[in-house]
């Protein structure tokens, strides 16, 4: 922290530096719904801001990802190394020099916090931040947050930093509440109830065996150790090993009950064990990755940091993986927020982080949200004027977003499944024909307000209703796209295992392959879903914004993966 004397020394310089022209960077027209203004932030409060220095060649990285992920291209599945990605993602010497000149002129000491050098932190008092970035930092509260947060509704850059700085965080991002989508209520079940894998009936309960049967997922153990699934956890969600052992004993008795996950901690994230510490999300995610991806090693990444810093914590995750030479091959995340909470520059930077992971051969999966077209919520009031709210990171074109189905004859989109169109990211290069095809199915007088030119999500779907898990030593039913993403991650990991065993590269960023193959062989590769209960969009043949391309058929996916 800066001392008071230092603060006095710094201020005049800061004021001098503010004399130059300022360029608006991000702005909110109003305080986001639910937040309450508590007045100006104290002038001497010390802020730690994360600064994203502009990557030198995002367009080049995107082009490499496009060719590595598109079947038929010469570079197909030639995933990049850590250093190759760094060459695209790191800031140019001019950018580093421009920022360092600015920093030293203003008495700031930047600390580089990412392997690619594109993230630095600076600590400075509110008064100086207000001057340097033409901001007005204020204190805000939200009933769901444990304490006040300091944010500004507007942030600008001095002209000499324009083009060199992509993001200042946290500034205009406002995140509150539970970043875990609010799934339908969980309930404890009696094990002796007549069970069925058909969740369209009252006794229908999904177990690993149901998913294996429904999608033809093999039960034989994986053989390749270099293929690892990483399950992320935010929000103090703790995965329990005792519950996992009980889950395996009950529902995967053919897997050794001492099979477990490796805990990886980031930003002081924890994973304490105890009967009353079970995180439903963390248990669901670990139980259904380990329970589906038989024999695939699973890492549980527990990320510390508070809810209001969820965007920062997502960045922390990608920045961490950027520095891991042999990263996991599959990353699954069941957390998200309204895209509008982030702001365009921050969402873009985070999304580019997933682009970089995809280019390294990591399949990045996200649950698509549980509020249908109402963003991350299910309160009707939020969307009363028919304006649909997309969910991020599912809306990022470089993740594979997974929606939810239920029932089995036929499988149907479940009415909470999140989907729609981004307001930040344009229609992705791999989905233009599919999105256009879907939009043609909408009636001319369709009342929903959504962004026709945006990236459409989800990409795929899988069951998401009444998953049996063990939590706190009791069996419980959990529902939501939170269940679908880890299960799909398990399928991707098993496909990777077979690819590696055959001496082939892993799937990596998989959306173009799924679309290409689905276009030619929709019925056999992925089941199209034509019934839906959505309050807004309806499912359609081909791609739709409820179930994407549909649900997996393991043998068909394996054949497509091997042939490509
Ligand atoms: C699990 O138990 C088996 C048999 O008791 C043992 O061979 C194996 O090493 C154990 N695995 C772990 C990860 O503890
Ligand atoms: C993660 O966040 C912590 C706390 O904000 C910070 O100290 C650390 O440098 C961050 N790491 C990365 C890789 O961003
Ligand atoms: C409709 O709702 C959206 C999302 O809540 C909001 O941003 C927009 O301002 C509203 N439009 C009108 C005309 O009320
Ligand atoms: C979804 O379907 C369930 C069961 O039919 C119903 O109770 C619920 O109200 C529906 N939710 C929405 C948002 O329509
Ligand atoms: C619609 O999405 C595009 C990106 O595809 C974006 O530039 C535009 O601002 C969005 N429109 C609205 C109203 O958000
Ligand atoms: C967990 O439940 C089982 C029975 O379902 C019981 O045998 C066991 O003692 C319980 N374990 C704990 C730690 O309560």
Descriptive report:
By secondary structure, the chain is of the alpha/beta class. The chain folds into two domains: 132 residues, no CATH class; 377 residues, Rossmann fold, CATH 3.40.50. It is 31% helix and 20% strand. It is built from 15 helices and 26 strands. Strands 11, 12, 13, 14, 16, 18, 19 and 22 form an eight-stranded mixed β-sheet that branches. The longest helix is centred in the C-terminal third of the chain and has 21 residues. It is globular, with a radius of gyration of 23 Å. The N and C termini lie far apart (55 Å). The structure holds 2-acetamido-2-deoxy-beta-D-glucopyranose (6 copies).
List key phrases describing it:
564 residues, alpha/beta, Rossmann fold, 2 domains, 8-stranded mixed sheet, 4-stranded antiparallel sheet, 15 helices, 26 strands, 31% helix, globular, disordered N terminus, binds 2-acetamido-2-deoxy-beta-D-glucopyranose, signal, S53_propep
Set down the secondary structure blueprint.
Layout: H1 4-17, E1 22-27, E2 36-40, E3 46-53, H2 58-69, H3 82-89, H4 93-105, E4 111-112, E5 119-125, H5 126-132, E6 138-141, E7 149-151, E8 154-158, E9 165-169, E10 187-188, H6 208-215, E11 229-233, H7 241-251, E12 262-266, H8 280-292, E13 298-303, H9 310-322, E14 330-333, E15 337-338, H10 339-342, H11 344-359, E16 363-367, E17 391-392, E18 400-406, E19 412-413, E20 420-426, H12 432-440, E21 454-457, E22 460-463, E23 467-471, E24 474-478, H13 481-501, H14 511-525, E25 526-527, E26 551-552, H15 554-563
Parallel strand pairs: 11-13, 11-14, 12-13, 14-16, 16-18, 18-22
Antiparallel strand pairs: 1-8, 2-6, 3-5, 3-9, 4-5, 6-7, 10-24, 15-17, 18-19, 20-21, 23-24, 25-26
Helix pairs in contact: 1-5, 2-11, 7-8, 8-13, 9-11, 13-15, 14-15
Residues 378, 415, 535 line the site of one 2-acetamido-2-deoxy-beta-D-glucopyranose (NAG).
């Amino acid at each position: 922290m800066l001392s008071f004397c230092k603060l006095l020394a710094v201020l005049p310089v800061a004021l001098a530096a503010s004399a130059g022209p300022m360029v608006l960077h991000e702005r909110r027209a109003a305080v986001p719904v639910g937040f309450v203004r508590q007045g100006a932030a104290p002038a001497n409060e010390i802020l730690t801001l994360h600064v994203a220095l502009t990557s030198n060649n995002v367009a080049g990285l995107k082009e490499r990802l496009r060719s590595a992920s598109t079947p038929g291209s010469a570079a197909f599945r030639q995933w990049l190394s850590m250093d190759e990605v760094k060459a695209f993602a790191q800031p140019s010497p001019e950018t580093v020099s421009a920022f360092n000149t600015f920093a030293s002129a203003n008495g700031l000491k930047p600390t580089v916090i990412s392997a690619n050098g594109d993230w630095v932190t600076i600590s400075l008092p509110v008064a100086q931040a207000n001057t340097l970035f033409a901001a007005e930092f204020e204190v805000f509260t939200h009933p769901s947050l444990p304490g006040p947060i300091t944010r500004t509704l507007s942030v600008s850059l001095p002209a000499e930093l324009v083009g060199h700085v992509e993001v200042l965080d946290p500034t205009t991002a406002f995140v509150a509440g539970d970043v875990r989508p609010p799934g339908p209520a969980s309930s404890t079940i009696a094990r002796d109830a007549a069970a069925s894998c058909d969740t369209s009936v009252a006794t229908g309960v999904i177990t690993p065996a149901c998913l294996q049967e429904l999608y033809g997922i093999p039960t034989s153990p994986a053989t390749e150790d270099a293929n690892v699934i990483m399950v992320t956890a935010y929000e103090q969600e703790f995965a329990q090993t005792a519950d996992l052992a009980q889950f395996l004993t009950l529902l995967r008795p053919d897997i050794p009950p001492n099979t477990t996950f490796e805990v990886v901690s980031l930003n002081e994230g924890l994973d304490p064990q105890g009967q009353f510490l079970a995180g439903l999300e963390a248990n669901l995610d670990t139980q259904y990755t380990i329970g589906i991806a038989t024999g695939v090693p699973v890492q549980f990444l527990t990320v510390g940091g508070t809810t209001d810093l969820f965007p920062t914590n997502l960045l922390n995750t990608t920045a961490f993986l950027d520095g891991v030479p042999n990263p996991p091959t599959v990353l699954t995340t069941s957390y998200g927020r309204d895209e509008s909470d982030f702001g365009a520059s921050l969402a873009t930077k985070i999304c580019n982080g997933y682009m970089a992971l995809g280019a390294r051969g990591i399949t990045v999966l996200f649950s698509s949200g549980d509020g249908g077209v109402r963003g991350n919520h299910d309160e009707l009031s939020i969307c009363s004027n028919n304006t649909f709210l997309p969910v991020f990171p599912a809306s990022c074109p470089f993740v594979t977003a997974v929606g939810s189905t239920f029932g089995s004859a036929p499988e149907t989109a479940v009415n909470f499944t999140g989907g729609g169109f981004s307001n930040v990211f344009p229609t992705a290069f791999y989905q233009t024909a599919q999105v256009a095809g879907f939009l043609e199915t909408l009636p001319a007088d369709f009342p929903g307000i959504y962004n026709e030119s945006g990236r459409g999500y989800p990409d795929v779907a899988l069951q998401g209703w009444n998953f049996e898990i063990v939590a706190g030593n009791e069996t419980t039913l959990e529902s939501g796209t939170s269940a679908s993403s880890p299960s799909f991650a398990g399928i991707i990991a098993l496909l990777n295992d077979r690819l590696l065993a055959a001496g082939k590269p892993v799937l990596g960023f998989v959306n173009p392959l799924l679309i290409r193959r689905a276009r030619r062989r929709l019925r056999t590769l992925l089941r199209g879903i034509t019934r839906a209960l959505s309050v807004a969009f309806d499912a359609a043949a081909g791609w739709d914004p409820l179930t994407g391309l549909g649900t997996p058929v393991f043998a068909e996916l394996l054949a497509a993966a091997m042939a490509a």
